[in-house]
Write a structure and sequence with these properties.
Keywords: Metal-binding, Signal, Zinc. With 455 residues, the chain is of the alpha+beta class. The protein has 13 helices and 19 strands. α3 (46-54) runs antiparallel to α5.
Length: 455
């Protein structure tokens, strides 16, 4: 057990540095702030700066990283942050902003977001997805409004407000903007976190993107599911379409698909019964089938093929045993006794450098979690039960290093529209998020003072 005096100073440092996402929650929950809907041309405001960032098309397959980086650098200069650009893959830079703390020897805190976004089908949107139109009800329509250009700009706006109040952090704060998250992060966050430059940051805790909540609770994520791409292939003797014989390629593949479907159903039944969330089970979903002998009019219908293949999207929660899953695939889903072969493309880490599941503890064993939770609850805020994210973020590369990381995007009372048509975020929700991450309208640090009394 730590000595009381040491514990006090430890929690003092922790509580001060999480100021960026803890302040003013009480005011946010007591009332909905009013906001005059300004035209984008009316001035340089948090909303117009957000709109300007959204208008930069960073959607794949050709994200405009240079324009996005130039804009972010201009914002960092106006705020007074240290800035540098790193490039670990050609044409895919990482932007890093730093706010030095008064105790630089302490482990730093990293706030991460990604530059890129998924494509958008313009014809299926009510407004051009890169126009960032703001409606009279405050909805700002744009690709990336929720995922996740919002937090990238909210970080900067929170710093701007804190600096205006002459706030100085104790720990050094870093803010990273990485490329290619939407296509796996292999050329972005994966290489960044493996670099000497990242090691030199001495990161002790990190925050990354979370997800919106239609309700009034703030969602927080302590883990992601790990994606596997599974290909199974069956070989067999070709034959006439009228023949019945054992171990044809299609027969073997269909047996495997049936077995996998039963496994999928067993996992889904657990979710339907309310015994687990969707993100807490292994999901198996077919994504393609490939078989048959092509012909000019389609396929040869009187010939059984010698090969058949299927692809599946698997998502493993950190509680799953990857070795047991590989064994199941080899012995049940694609056994060689049925002339089956398989290939697993593991898209990212599933264990950290010490062999532990990629999970950040959300109990009292993790002092960072304790401070985060206190920051919310001490002001009467509603915090949802910590979750495993059903999909994947760049936080997995940070957790792989054994660094605790939470996914948190301050979006309540907002439908989940990431990757959807007509993605939007209301201006009032966006402004609330800045306050949650930074400082309230009265410029007070009440929630931190409450925490210090407890620490």
């Amino acid at each position: 057990m730590a000595k009381p005096r040491r514990s006090f100073f430890f929690f003092f440092f922790l509580t001060t540095t999480v100021l960026l996402f803890s302040l003013s929650l009480s005011l946010l929950l007591q009332a909905t702030p009013t906001h005059q809907h300004q035209d984008p041309q009316e001035g340089d405001t948090p909303i117009t700066r957000f709109q300007n960032y959204l208008r930069i098309n960073t959607a794949h397959p050709s994200p405009d990283y240079p324009s996005a980086i130039a804009y972010l650098l201009s914002q960092a200069r106006s705020i007074g942050l240290l800035a540098r650009t790193l490039e670990f893959s050609p044409g895919k830079p990482v932007v890093l902003f730093t706010w030095p703390g008064s105790r630089p020897s302490l482990p730093s805190i990293l706030f991460n977001s990604h530059l890129d976004s998924v494509p958008a089908e313009s014809s299926k949107w009510v407004h051009d997805p890169f126009s960032a139109v703001r409606k009279t009800d405050g909805k700002i329509f744009a690709r990336g409004a929720q995922d996740d250009k919002c937090i990238g700009m909210q970080y900067l706006e929170a710093i701007r407000n804190l600096k205006e109040k002459k706030f100085e952090p104790i720990r050094t704060l870093h803010f990273s903007y990485v490329p290619d998250e939407e296509i796996g992060g292999f050329e972005g966050a994966a290489k960044f976190t493996a670099s000497k430059e990242f090691k030199d940051l001495n990161v002790g805790f990190a925050m990354d993107e979370g997800q919106a909540n239609p309700g009034d609770e703030f969602r927080v994520f302590y883990a992601d599911r790990s994606p596997w791409n599974l290909k199974i292939k069956a070989d067999g003797i070709p034959g006439h379409g009228s023949r019945l014989y054992d171990n044809s390629a299609m027969e073997n593949l269909m047996k495997s698909v049936e077995i996998m479907s039963r496994f999928r159903e067993s996992q889904f039944d657990v979710v339907k019964a309310g015994r687990a969330a969707n993100s807490e089970v292994i999901s198996v979903n077919p994504v393609y089938l490939k078989a048959g002998i092509p012909s000019p009019t389609g396929f040869v219908m009187n010939m059984q093929p010698s090969e058949a293949e299927a692809g599946f999207d698997l998502r493993l929660p950190p509680t799953a045993d990857p070795d047991a899953m590989r064994k199941r695939i080899a012995e049940e889903w694609a056994p060689d006794v049925r002339n089956m072969t398989f290939e697993i493309i593991q898209k990212g880490p599933i264990r950290d450098i010490l062999g532990r599941p990629l999970m950040t503890p959300t109990d009292e064993s993790n002092p960072w979690w304790s401070v985060f939770k206190q920051a919310i609850t001490s002001v009467g805020g509603k915090l949802a039960k910590p979750e495993i994210l059903a999909s994947t973020t760049d936080a997995r590369y940070i957790r792989e290093l054994g660094i605790p990381a939470l996914g948190f995007s301050p979006m309540t009372n907002t439908p989940i529209l990431l990757h959807d048509h007509n993605e939007f975020l209301k201006d009032t929700i966006y402004l609330r998020g800045i306050e949650v991450l930074g400082i309230n309208k009265k410029g007070t640090y009440a929630s931190i003072l409450v925490m210090l009394k407890v620490a």
